[in-house]
Amino acid sequence: MSKGVFVFALIIAYVGSTLAAGGVFVSKEEASNYLTREKRANSGFEEFAKGNFEQECVEEICNYEELREVYENTAQTNAKWDELTRQCENMSPCNDIGTDTCQNLWSSYACHCHAGYTGVHCETDIDECQQNETCVHGICINGIGTYDCVCSTGYEGDTCNDDINECENFDNLCQNEGECVNDVGSYHCACASGYTGSDCSQDVNECDLNLCPEGSQCEHGANSYTCFCPDEGCGASVDTQLQQAVDP
């Protein structure tokens, strides 16, 4: 049989099978699925051989044209392309609370977490309190996706590492003209003469210090004291000391 006769016989056979299936013509959309397809001219054989998915799109990243050669059908190709390139939208794989953004990758995805979360799907809360010096001078309280520092007295700031200058921030910390001195994490009062206590509010009782000469009596006053003798006197030597104290 000649080559021309053989080709003609194939055409007759195809037309016969089509008629038996119910008609000669197919729809415009169906015909477009099979006829509208760009081919890569890598080899003459590839123009006729159906593409292999593993070879085209698993062993390497393929493009839409290569995927189209695998499925030979626009609808199937579009469905597979959507599956491979839109997993964030199709699957919603990332944790809603812990995720900042979901990034589509080829046949995969990547979840980018908010601060305070970790894990493949941003599903794990980070316990910041387990990290060193989260709250330097305070107590760390872990929360969902965050933490709080409860600072010790005298400190402030996000990590409780800022010293509070009480002398600048607060008034009247030291009484009776005492001087406020700022310390790291605290302060103290340098009291004027005659006063004592943490805020210099206590008057010193000099009579308790035995400052008067023996035989004399002590009278305490506001930030002062007076040594005196009873009516019968204290003796010449004591009287002299008292007189010198009054008239130095």
Task: Give a verbal description of the structure.
The chain has 248 residues and is α+β, with helices and mostly antiparallel strands. It folds into 4 domains: 24-85, no CATH class; 89-125, Ribbon (Laminin); 166-204, Laminin; 206-246, no CATH class. It contains 8 helices and 14 strands. It has helices spanning 3-20, 28-35, 53-58, 64-71, 74-85, 87-91, 166-169, 236-246; strands spanning 99-105, 108-113, 117-118, 124-125, 138-143, 146-151, 155-156, 162-163, 179-183, 186-190, 195-196, 202-203, 217-221, 224-228. The protein has a two-stranded antiparallel sheet. Strands 3-4 form a two-stranded antiparallel sheet. α4 packs across α5. Mean pLDDT is 79; it is low at 3-11, 18-22 and 33-49. Residues 40-86 form the Gla domain. One of its GO terms (molecular function) is calcium ion binding. Residues 1-20 form the signal peptide. Residues 84-123, 125-161, 163-201, 203-235 form the EGF-like domain. Keywords: Calcium, Disulfide bond, EGF-like domain, Gamma-carboxyglutamic acid, Glycoprotein, Repeat, Secreted, Signal.
User: Low-confidence runs (pLDDT<50, min 5 residues)?
Assistant: 3-11, 18-22, 33-49
Taken in chain order, the helices and strands follow as HHHHHHEEEEEEEEHEEEEEEH
Strand arrangement within the widest β-sheet reads 1-2
- What's the pLDDT, averaged over the residues? 79
DSSP helical segment count = 8
Structural class computed from helices and strand pairing: alpha+beta
Helix content: 25-40%
- What amount of the residues lies in strands? 15-25%
